[in-house]
Inverse folding.
């Protein structure tokens, strides 16, 4: 994502999105989430918005916030916090969130 071309980066995003659909993988990758998120943002700046980019960032931040708050945290509340944070920090880069039920996390 950081240094490859558009085709390679698109394939990487699709692979990340598929992997992040599994909560245990999302949880493991959330530990290095900042680096992955930065790479996704840089790729998106260079090559334009991709729905997979927002999905990947949502999943990584969701698992990171959920881990910080504990397993008792309400998933819907955590997801709302994540979406708000993404909109504030990256909304102009990533674009609007997908409609409900269209591949959204959690």
């Amino acid at each position: 994502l950081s240094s490859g071309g558009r085709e390679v980066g698109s394939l990487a995003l699709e692979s990340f999105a598929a992997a992040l659909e599994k909560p245990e993988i999302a949880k493991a990758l959330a530990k290095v989430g900042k680096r992955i998120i930065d790479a996704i943002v840089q790729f998106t700046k260079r090559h334009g918005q991709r729905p997979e980019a927002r999905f990947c960032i949502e999943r990584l931040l969701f698992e990171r916030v959920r881990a910080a708050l504990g397993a008792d945290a309400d998933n819907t509340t955590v997801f709302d916090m994540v979406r708000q944070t993404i909109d504030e920090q990256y909304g102009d880069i990533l674009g609007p969130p997908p409609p409900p039920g269209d591949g959204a996390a959690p």
Summary: Residues 75-94 form the longest helix (20 residues). The chain is about 75% helix and 0% strand. The mean pLDDT is 87. The two ends are 24 Å apart (CA to CA).
